[in-house]
Design brief:
Helix content of chain A: 25-40%
Oligomer: heterodimer
Order of helices and strands of chain B: EHEHEHHEHEHEHHEHEHHEHEEEEH
Radius of gyration of chain A: 22 Å
Number of strands of chain B: 13
Largest sheet of chain B: 6 strands, parallel
Helix content of chain B: 25-40%
Strand content of chain A: 25-35%
Distance between the termini of chain A: 22 Å
Number of helices of chain B: 13
Number of helices of chain A: 10
Structural class of chain B: alpha/beta
Radius of gyration of chain B: 21 Å
Strand order of the largest sheet of chain B: 3-2-1-4-5-6
Largest interface: A-B, 29 and 21 residues
């Protein structure tokens, strides 16, 4: 597989991003990015197919132009409040006479871990290996070991079927094939975490417009992940109600003047929106704006904290919390997270790529960069590696393969 | 009937009678008061002369035992007496605690009767505290639904919110008494708006017109001030009143009626300051009426009462008043009674009015629910943050 480009596509509620990369001198290099305002998407779900397709085409055409390639297939990031993650243990009894554990047993254990926890409207997207046990004892690599029983703990990340199918339809209508699907929270982690952070334990929170996704690294593995159907749109909506503003103006106000923490200084300040179109302009007290934002972000962080605590992971986050996504640009958001989680907190920057990296600077690019890296890893390993870092989707999405270009 | 008799303040059911007792206590110029209940003992505890013991020939004199249907049947059995109570009135204010049997069952029946006889019918209702249990809450919800269709407007006092106002460590009896006092203050405040002859007269007609164009829910706020800054103080206190959701109600209401009551020392600039302060918190397109009245009892003080409706239907031409066939001959009619359009009002949503919320940009999107809470509702609202008080 020579220099075929890899394309990572993120179809969010606020923005659509298509990132094109290729292999150069043994490294993954960014060659172009296409972005557009999203449309027809609410809380990461498709609510208007036509608008979404139109917006997607804008981003894809821009990506093709900037990178000078034709895009036939993409890797797609998905998220939404329907994403669930659970650790499942698959058990297999070694039936060979000599009791040796071969690749067959390892496959079977993985399959057993994958199935079982998934509901009727759900599909597993990732099966993330955590640990192997041979006769109850944790081992790194059971291949060729002897034992009676092989078990694998895996974190299964699953999504609702309908939202993902609809999103795939939008992409295929544009028309482009979907090679693979990945959870954007996981991608955000891949995009910004260093190996040290992964080793020491970290919580990555991707603050999107429609959804907030997160992934937890603890005990040197991916310990937990999830998503809430709450995002930047909720902050805007809260502001619109609190200050009696139209949605678009509330968004403007949030971006220009909003902050997630309130200080003594805040009480003395006002924030002014100049007139625009049919809007006469308005001056508000900054303390009202920031208190509304603070309430929403505080609640969101606390919900995530609760989930992480329930999994027993909060105490294992040596590297603290990393914030990504457009929402990480909100003033004071790292301070707020610091106080809610009681841990060090920083805003993540994408890393680990070469090429035109200047175009993907900023926390909002974490997921799409991570997705590109992830796609690249898959490609490297798909030729024979037995421990795939993720699953290609099961039978439902199994028809998704390279079908050859068609434009 | 004399001026005072055209207005009736009526406590219905056990809670209502107790509230009435609090409201009427020491009130010098109270309107006509009456208590309506099925339990003899609680009825006399209201401390008013005029009472109706529900039950007709089935007069057991005991409570309806938490059964609203039974409460309604008891009321129906006393139809004649109840009709005599509300007939010929211009304004009937019912006070009731929802969740039990008599109040929840009889109040809608009585409200409908009062409205049909031509009176502007307002219902001040208290809803149960959370610990009182799901059954009472369900009863209260149902009764509220019925009342919104039966009365012209309801003013809801969620006891749970009021209790939060003074904290969980209050002794139970004291908490209920304080809640009753808060409700009492609001009822008296509304009465003040209507009763005091004044400089700028807002009267029953103005209130009636606003309510008829509203959606059946009325919010009431009340605040008082003393000293140099009493105008500003009164408005601050008003905005902080428990039913105004920290000023939220002012910011979203389409129709507002405010009345300033002061002593002989009330100044013109103070009235202007009150009006300014209120206007600054309202929607630019809200319809706002301001009344003022002087009362010797208010020397040194300034009080502001606010009545607000959220959604105001566009004004239609008022129907021409028909001669009232049953009008008492020769009697003065200072409060006016044109024939009223009999517009049956079906509430659009059965939820408690204070929980109704447009979903903003999440209209037609599946709600995000977490452990029973709708996360799409603004957090600052669910946390009851008072923005104006910041």
């Amino acid at each position: 597989m020579a220099n075929e480009p890899l394309v990572a596509l993120e179809v969010g509620t606020t923005r659509i991003r298509a990132l094109v990369g290729e292999l150069r001198e043994g490294m993954l290099a960014v060659i172009g990015l296409g972005e557009s305002e999203s449309a027809g998407i609410r809380k990461s779900d498709v609510v208007d197919m036509d608008h979404a397709v139109t917006a997607l085409r804008t981003a894809m055409e821009a990506a093709e132009e900037r990178s000078n390639v034709t895009i036939y297939a993409v890797h797609l990031a998905v998220s939404g409040g329907h994403v669930r993650a659970e650790v499942n243990r698959g058990t297999v009894h070694v039936t060979r006479k000599d009791g040796e554990i071969t690749e067959k047993e390892i496959e079977a254990a993985r399959e057993a871990a994958r199935s079982g926890t998934v509901g009727p409207d759900e599909e597993p997207v990732h099966t993330l290996h955590q640990r192997f046990y041979v006769d109850g004892v944790a081992v790194m690599d059971p291949l060729h070991m002897t034992g009676n029983r092989l078990e694998e703990d895996a974190l299964i990340i699953r999504t609702g079927i309908n939202p993902v199918v609809n999103l795939i339809k939008v992409v295929e209508t544009s028309p482009v094939d979907v090679e693979d699907v990945a959870f954007s929270g996981l991608c955000a982690g891949y995009g910004v975490l260093t190996p040290e952070q992964k080793y020491n334990g970290a919580l990555v929170i991707d603050l999107g417009g429609g959804t907030t996704s997160y992934v937890v690294y603890a005990d040197q593995m991916i310990a937990h992940a999830g998503a809430f159907g709450v995002g930047g749109d909720h902050v805007t909506n809260d502001i619109a109600f609190a200050l009696n503003l139209p949605q678009a103006q509330a968004e403007r106000l949030k971006r220009r003047h909003g902050a997630a923490v309130v200080t003594q200084e805040t009480r003395k300040l006002t924030a002014t929106l100049p007139p625009e179109g049919g809007f006469a302009g308005r001056t508000v007290r900054k303390v009202e704006l920031d208190v509304v934002i603070n309430a929403r972000m505080d609640e969101l962080f606390r919900l995530i904290r609760l989930e992480v605590e329930r999994q027993g992971c909060l105490v294992k986050l040596g590297a603290g919390v990393v914030l990504t996504g457009g929402g990480a640009r909100l003033g004071g958001v790292a301070d707020l997270a610091r106080s809610v989680f009681g841990l060090p907190c920083s805003v993540g920057e994408p890393s680990g790529l070469s090429g035109v990296t200047s175009i993907v600077r900023g926390p909002e690019y974490a997921a799409v960069v991570g997705l590109l890296k992830y796609a690249y890893q898959n490609q490297k390993q798909s030729s024979g590696g037995r421990l795939r870092p993720s699953d290609l989707l099961g039978t439902l999405f199994g028809g998704i393969r390279r079908r050859g270009g068609r434009r | 009937m004399s001026d005072g008799q055209r207005i009736l303040l009526c406590g219905v059911g056990g809670g209502g009678c107790a509230m009435l007792g609090s409201i009427a206590a020491g009130w010098d110029h109270a309107p006509d008061c009456a208590a309506v209940h099925s339990d003899v003992a609680e009825l006399s505890a209201a401390g008013v002369e005029r009472t109706v013991l529900l039950g007709g020939t089935v007069r057991l004199g005991v409570s309806a035992g938490g059964d609203a249907e039974r409460g309604q049947r008891l009321a129906e059995a006393s139809e004649t007496e109840l009709r005599a109570l509300v007939e010929g009135r211009d304004l009937v204010i019912l006070v009731v605690a929802l969740g039990g049997g008599t109040g929840s069952g009889a109040a809608p029946f009585l409200a409908r009767m009062a409205r049909q006889s031509g009176a502007l019918t307002l219902c001040f209702c208290a809803t149960p505290l959370r610990f009182e249990g799901l059954q009472r809450q369900a009863n209260a919800d149902q009764a509220l639904h019925a009342l919104r269709a039966a009365a012209d407007a309801v003013v809801v006092f969620p006891n749970e919110r009021l209790a939060e106002w003074f904290g969980g460590r209050t002794a139970v009896a004291e908490a209920f008494e304080r809640i009753n006092q808060i409700i009492g203050r609001h009822v008296r405040a509304v009465w003040n708006v209507l009763r005091h002859p004044g400089l700028l007269r807002t009267d029953l007609m103005d209130l009636r017109r606003m309510i008829e164009r509203g959606s059946g829910v009325l919010s009431v706020g009340y605040g008082e001030g003393e000293g140099d800054q009493r105008a500003e103080q009164a408005v601050e206190a008003l905005v902080a009143s428990p039913l105004l959701e920290g000023g939220m109600v002012l910011a979203v209401s389409g129709g507002l009626l405010a009345c300033i009551v002061g002593g002989p020392d009330l100044r013109l600039d103070e009235m202007e300051r009150v009006a300014e302060a209120l206007r600054g918190r309202m929607r630019p397109d809200a319809e706002f009426q301001l009344g003022a009245a002087i009362s010797p009892a208010y020397a040194g003080r300034l009080a502001v009462t606010l009545l607000a409706v959220e959604h105001l239907a566009p004004a239609e031409a008022a129907p021409a008043p028909e001669p009232e066939a049953a009008a008492p001959a020769g009697g003065p009619r200072p409060l006016g009674r044109p024939s009223r359009p009999r517009r049956p009002r079906t509430p659009q949503q059965p939820e408690l009015p204070l929980q109704e919320l447009q979903r903003g940009r999440f209209t037609n999107v599946t709600p995000t629910l977490y452990e029973g809470e709708d996360l799409d509702t603004p957090t600052f609202r669910r946390r009851k943050i008072d923005l104006a008080a910041l």
